[in-house]
Design brief:
mainly alpha; globular; Four Helix Bundle (Hemerythrin (Met), subunit A); 136 residues
Length: 136
């Protein structure tokens, strides 16, 4: 469910900082040894950045299917393209399967998709910066 709220720059900044901390920890992790945990962490970074963007826009999404709706919302707002949207929905699906079904990600998934994931994360940071500039 999408609701309009007062834009919260402080929460947006906190979410961004948490994403940066998680990325720093990921850089010190053997990603091939822990592929499922790595994917969970990457997804967590993406989710925090998307939520930082939406709260800075004054949008709160909660309830059943909120993660899917968050991804679709940023795509609709033209902050990510269709290819990124589909890839992020796939990551979300894997995250759910890991969290709820004990799914184990093959170590090749992370190594094959690391560049794409990092490119998406970089793009989300850039979109967040644009939001911050727009609302100053």
């Amino acid at each position: 469910m999408i609701t309009k709220v007062k834009p919260d720059r402080q929460k947006s900044e906190s979410l961004k900082k948490m994403a940066e901390i998680t990325l720093e920890r990921l850089d010190n992790t053997d990603m091939e040894k822990y592929p499922s945990n790595t994917l969970l962490d990457y997804y967590d970074v993406v989710h925090k950045l998307i939520e930082a963007i939406t709260v800075s826009d004054g949008i709160k999404i909660k309830g059943e299917g909120a993660h899917q709706e968050l991804i679709d919302y940023v795509a609709k707002q033209k902050k990510i393209d269709e290819h990124m949207r589909q890839f992020l929905q796939q990551m979300r699906d894997y995250r759910n399967r890991i969290s709820y079904d004990g799914f184990i990600v093959h170590k090749n998934y992370v190594s094959l998709n690391k560049v794409t994931i990092r490119r998406i994360i970089k793009h989300l940071f850039e979109q967040l910066e644009l939001n911050e500039l727009r609302y100053r």
